[in-house]
Write a structure and sequence with these properties.
Length: 412
């Protein structure tokens, strides 16, 4: 009898293993669910891109180059000579700030870290807070000097702290620019003083500004300061971005002025859930710079809106898995934003469509893209967002199958 039972057990294990292999050989046909509209499913190769307004669209801008971008999607809503290379003055400091915040996040620095002042930093011209060699400020104080007063000496001192020297830091700036896709940018210093070959474009500045807004929101704490002081009130700081007092919803980011660059700004503003970035390069005066930025932002807020994303009330929380000891994996919808950029007055035409397979084939790794949510306006695809696996579902091995069968028998 014992030998008969053992034979039956072995046969059961073999059958179970063969079944586990068999069920993992096919992929489900797929599931498509339309939410928020009754129209048929629409196939599209790529999301539609809202057309950028041409330079002759009626906007009066006194500048060499300009761009208006929505940072959630990176869509360009207006452009004028966006890829012409030119000096960008102190807008350069946005990259200096990015590398500094990344060093803080990486645990290399804290806001209380003392920043020493070298002879090199002391000799920076242009806008400054008159640092003295050997003087020390905290990193927090230096960030305020950079963001509020656009201090060149503070920017170089921070660059030396982060990179060890300004030349090494500049190498890091250029490497980071390449990683971000700033293909027409070359940095030669950390502060933006006119130097041969120190060039960028309106598009690249918008790319950098967008990345900062999306990854370093703490920057806005500094760029939104109107007045401040250092040295126990002896050194007054007044923000160079006068739009902080003139434009509703302004949050930052950075101004710049040199003889080579002209008068420049990368301005960010938020109204009714919509954030926009307006970059203006090469204006003849400060008044022209702020007027051009205001014109761009007004155009964006007048013609575009952040509409709530159509909901997916029936979206499944998990997906079945073949060939794994795990019956299913939970789904991660974190990529879905709360809003989507649309032209004003067209929100009623929005609908969302969820595309998922009926089941997955093991192995499934956490973070793997398993489906998508497509957002349509009528029959036009606006954007797609990934749905990912929120846990692992490893492939069931022979040993795992045997152990699972044994546990089932014991449980019985």
């Amino acid at each position: 009898m014992e030998r008969r039972n053992l034979a039956l057990l072995c046969a059961g294990v073999l059958c179970f293993w063969l079944f586990a292999l068999a069920v993992g050989t096919a992929q489900g046909a797929g599931l498509r669910v339309a939410i928020g509209g009754t129209g048929p499913a629409v196939q599209a190769d790529a999301p539609a891109v809202l057309a950028a307004a041409p330079a002759n669209s009626g906007l009066q801008l006194e500048c060499r180059a300009a761009i208006l971008m929505e940072p959630e999607t990176g869509r360009v809503l207006y452009e004028k000579a966006p890829d012409e290379r030119m000096p960008i003055a102190s807008i350069t400091k946005l990259m200096t700030l990015l590398l500094t915040f990344e060093a803080i996040r990486g645990g290399k620095l804290t806001l209380d870290t003392p920043v020493p002042v070298s002879e090199h930093a002391y000799h920076m011209g242009g806008s400054q807070i008159w640092l003295e060699p050997g003087e020390q400020f905290t990193l927090d104080e230096m960030l305020r000097a950079i963001c509020v007063s656009s201090a060149n000496d503070a920017a170089v001192a921070v660059a030396e702290l982060v990179g060890g020297s300004e030349p090494v830091f500049v190498e890091q700036m250029n490497a980071r620019a390449a990683e971000l896709g700033m293909t027409n940018t070359t940095f030669r210093n950390a502060c933006g003083l006119d130097t041969e070959g120190h060039l960028s474009t309106a598009r690249d500045v918008a790319i950098l500004s967008r990345y900062l807004l999306n990854t370093c929101p703490e920057l806005l704490h500094y760029t939104g300061i109107w007045t401040d002081s250092l040295r126990n009130g002896q050194t007054q700081l007044v923000n160079t971005n006068k739009l902080l007092r003139r434009y509703s919803g302004i949050t930052g980011l950075k101004t710049g002025t040199t003889s080579g660059a002209g008068v420049c700004i990368s301005a960010s503003a938020t109204r009714d859930g919509l954030t926009l970035i307006a970059v203006v390069l090469g204006s003849p005066s400060s008044a022209d710079r702020f007027h051009s930025a205001t014109t761009l932002l007004d155009y964006g807020f007048a013609n575009y809106a952040a509409a709530p994303l159509p909901t997916l009330p029936e979206r499944p929380l998990a997906l079945a898995v073949k060939g794994s000891a795990e019956d299913s994996v939970p789904l991660d919808y974190a990529a879905l934003p709360e809003t989507i950029l649309i032209e004003k007055g067209t929100a009623s035409a929005l609908r969302a469509e969820l595309t998922l397979p009926e089941e997955l084939e093991a192995p499934v790794e956490k973070g793997r893209t398993v489906g998508k949510v497509s957002i349509f306006q009528d029959d036009t695809l606006l954007n797609e967002y990934e749905v990912k696996a929120a846990a692992d579902a490893p492939l069931l091995t022979f040993g795992g199958a045997l152990e699972l069968l044994w546990q089932c028998l014991l449980g019985a």
